[in-house]
């Protein structure tokens, strides 16, 4: 790995770790939420690298969160690391099935099929009251973390650090994936799928694997959000949630593995401040922000940093 | 013995005409501009709010001839479409042609968010009840269930909207230009077709259709914030089933979704929402282009 990137990552990790000690509790909660959602956004960006816009990433996000809900409420599993494994496995298993068919789809058809799957899942979640709690959803009791029972006043911070660890590990893995032959092939597929096939690359396999990987990542985000918020509801699978992920992906930009996290943090902050200062127009604020970004900064917030750097050089 | 199928058929037809009205404009805009317009739902909501507000004003004091309220609804739709349509297309979408489809989609999502709050600012958050036109036409007994004649009106409006659009596209000079643009925007421009005009007129037409759906829905419901969110995803299902960009497809998609939903409501109410998206999934799996695919010219 490039030394500069390694140093930057360590610096960032220390910075975010340190922030946990100084920031007030509600900001910690927001940061944990933003970083966890940032993982889902990163999964959307992974698919975008293949030229695929998923309009149903909420499916894996919700499936993993509900798997955690069931694990806690029905099977009495209360350990965060086990819950993480369960949620991620659930979304990966789901994606392994759906991926078989969806990997053949491109462009708007991919988007619409992913939307259809997530909305069908939403339909089940809302109507199966007995199992899922209907539109009220389910409460999630705070789990133990690494076997430790966390006292309530420490819970926010501990969950934040759990999220931070997961994010650090995932960023490294995704960085490796992007550098790998598979990750390179995906870029090539977006540029010219036919040519990749002629050169002997398996387009279907590459997209299938990336789809499953993205689902696992989205599922991880879902588990972390569920643990952080302490509640799951069908809204997690609704089209607006999936739309939000694509929205944040473009807000942050697709130029780096860090960009989705920058986008997610900016999004949560703007959202909560806009909600605080003008509760009736927070959506409008976000919409105008997005239009501004698309018109003035087509590469997303991340490209702002690159522009500044270029100016210095 | 035949009552249940009859009720399902009637309910399905009513729901189908409503679905057709909300999705016709969406599929038209996609067909010509190649943009899947999420803000379509907001235009529907805008139509519903404007229609409801005008209806309430119209019946205030009972000075006017009651059936005139249907003309008021039509007027509300035209007002919304003719104002919002050109504004959105010229103001925002015009700059988006040729950009990444993901960006186009998110721009319409941003517009959706802006309009969502814009509507709250303009009309407030209290519900609007504009039920008067709904009861105006009386009721009919069908298989032991009473159906207001307003539903028949809805069906007629849907058929008229679809029919007029068909005539416009297949029997007029403007329609031929639109078809040329659908097939190849570049060659059309080279042949002297004024592309921006085609785009703005088509978008305005689509916006008016969305507002029309909203205006004629207003008397049937309490118009509250948030009605746009559910509508847009239903309209997506309808146009995807029928084939993106195809008005005939939207009609067939609306019929299928309408009947399936009516059947689910009466037979397995728990699966009402699920069945709609199940049909959407199955159609995408079997015929990804939908049941009436738009003609795709092969370009290599």
Largest sheet of chain A: 2 strands, antiparallel
Q: Given the C-alpha coordinates, what overall shape of chain A results?
A: globular
Q: What helical percentage do the residues of chain A reach? A: over 70%
Helix/strand-derived category of chain A reads mainly alpha
What structural class results from the helix and strand content of chain B?
mainly alpha
Task: Provide the CATH top-level class of chain B.
Answer: Mainly Alpha
The SSE string of chain A, one letter per element, is: HHHHHHEHHHHEHHHH
Major beta-sheet overview of chain B: 2 strands, antiparallel
State which percent range the strand residues of chain B make up. Answer: under 5%
Q: Tell me the number of helical segments of chain B per DSSP (H or I, 4 or more residues long).
A: 12
Instruction: Give the overall pLDDT of chain B as a whole number.
Output: 88
- Between the first and last Cα atoms of chain B, what is the distance in angstroms? 58 Å
Spell the H/E element sequence of chain B.
HHHHEHEEHHHHEHHH
- The name CATH uses for the topology of chain B is ABC transporter involved in vitamin B12 uptake, BtuC
Question: Would you give an account of this structure?
Answer:
- The complex is a heterodimer of chains A (about 325) and B (about 300).
- Chain A is an all-alpha fold.
- Chain A has one domain.
- Chain A is built from 14 helices and two strands; from the N terminus they run ααααααβααααβαααα.
- Chain A has a two-stranded antiparallel sheet with strand order 1-2.
- Chain B has one domain (about 5-285): Orthogonal Bundle (ABC transporter involved in vitamin B12 uptake, BtuC), CATH 1.10.3470.
- Chain B is mainly alpha-helical and about 300 residues long.
- Chain B has twelve helices and four strands, in the order H-H-H-H-E-H-E-E-H-H-H-H-E-H-H-H.
- Chains A and B meet through helix 5, helix 11 and helix 13 of A and helix 4, helix 10 and helix 12 of B.
């Amino acid at each position: 790995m490039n030394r500069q990137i390694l140093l930057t990552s360590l610096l960032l990790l220390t910075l975010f770790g340190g922030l946990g000690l100084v920031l007030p509790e509600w900001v910690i909660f927001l940061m944990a939420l933003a970083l966890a959602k940032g993982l889902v956004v990163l999964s959307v960006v992974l698919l975008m690298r293949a030229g695929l816009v998923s309009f149903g990433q909420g499916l894996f996000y919700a499936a993993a969160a509900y798997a955690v809900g069931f694990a806690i409420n029905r099977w009495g599993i209360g350990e965060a690391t086990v819950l993480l494994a369960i949620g991620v496995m659930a979304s990966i298993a789901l994606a392994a099935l759906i991926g078989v068919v969806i990997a053949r789809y491109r462009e708007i058809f991919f988007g619409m099929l992913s939307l259809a799957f997530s909305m069908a899942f939403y339909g089940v979640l809302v109507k199966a009251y007995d199992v899922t709690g209907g539109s009220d959803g389910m409460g999630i009791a705070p789990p133990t973390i690494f076997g430790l029972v966390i006292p309530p006043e420490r819970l926010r911070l501990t969950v934040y650090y759990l999220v931070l660890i997961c994010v650090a590990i995932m960023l490294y893995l995704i960085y490796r994936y992007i550098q790998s032959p598979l990750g390179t092939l995906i870029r090539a597929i977006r540029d010219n799928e036919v040519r990749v096939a002629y050169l002997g690359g398996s387009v279907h396999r590459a997209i299938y694997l990336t789809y499953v990987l993205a689902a696992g990542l989205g599922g991880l985000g879902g588990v972390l959000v569920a643990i952080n918020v302490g509640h799951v509801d069908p809204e997690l699978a609704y089209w607006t949630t999936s739309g939000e992920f694509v929205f944040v992906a473009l807000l942050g930009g697709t130029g780096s593995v860090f960009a989705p996290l920058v986008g997610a943090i900016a999004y949560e902050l703007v959202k909560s401040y806009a909600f605080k200062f003008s509760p009736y127009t927070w959506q409008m604020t976000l919409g105008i922000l997005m239009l501004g970004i698309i018109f003035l900064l087509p590469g997303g917030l991340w490209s702002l940093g690159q522009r500044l750097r270029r100016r210095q050089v | 013995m035949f009552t249940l199928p009859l009720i399902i058929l009637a309910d399905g037809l009513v729901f189908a005409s409503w679905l057709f009205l909300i999705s016709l404009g969406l599929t038209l805009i996609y067909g010509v501009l190649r943009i899947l317009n999420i803000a379509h739902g907001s235009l529907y909501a805008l139509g519903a709010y404007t229609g409801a507000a005008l209806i309430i004003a119209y019946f205030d004091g009972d000075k006017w001839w009651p059936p005139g309220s249907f003309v008021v609804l039509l007027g509300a739709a035209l007002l919304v479409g003719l104002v919002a349509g050109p504004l959105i297309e010229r103001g925002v979408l015009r700059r988006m042609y040729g950009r990444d489809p993901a960006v186009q989609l998110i721009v319409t999502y941003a517009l959706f968010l802006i309009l969502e709050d814009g509507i709250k600012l303009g009309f407030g958050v209290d519900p609007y009840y504009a039920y008067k036109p709904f009861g105006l036409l009386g009721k009919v007994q069908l298989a032991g269930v009473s159906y207001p004649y307003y539903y028949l009106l809805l069906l007629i409006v849907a058929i008229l909207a679809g029919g007029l659009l068909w005539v416009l596209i297949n029997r007029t000079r403007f329609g031929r230009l639109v078809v040329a643009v659908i097939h190849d925007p570049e060659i059309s421009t080279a042949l002297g077709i004024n592309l921006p005009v085609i785009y703005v007129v088509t978008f305005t037409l689509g916006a008016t259709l969305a507002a029309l759906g909203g205006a004629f829905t207003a008397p049937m419901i309490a118009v509250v914030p948030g009605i746009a969110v559910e509508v847009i995803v239903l309209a997506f299902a309808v146009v995807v089933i029928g084939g993106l960009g195809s008005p005939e497809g939207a009609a067939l998609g609306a019929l299928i979704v309408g009947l399936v939903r009516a059947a689910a409501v009466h037979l397995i109410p728990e699966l009402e929402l699920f069945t709609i998206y199940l049909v959407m999934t199955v159609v995408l799996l079997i015929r990804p282009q939908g049941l009436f695919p738009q003609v795709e010219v092969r370009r290599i």
